Fold this protein.
Amino acid sequence: MNASTHSASTSVSRNVTIAGHRTSIRLQRELWDAIEEICRRERITLHQLCSRIAENKAPRSLTSEVRVFVVNYYRSAANDEGHRRAGHGTFESAAAN
């Protein structure tokens, strides 16, 4: 299986409504899982999340903006402060176990 076949087989398109207009976004299943987790955590719908992302969109496609948002969302939790708030401790303490 080549890379393009693998990537096409793991991508999923979903419809979202933004400002009354329906559009589709095609992302890998892992990204959709992450987005669903973010929506649950933030108590918003997929449509609300995508609308907020679209409001602040840079001159990139909505799909790209969604990817960037997911990365930034999890990066903010992975910094030192986010790591402490989540109670994860340090890498050194985890490696000692």
Q: What stands out?
A: The first helix runs from residue 3 to 10.
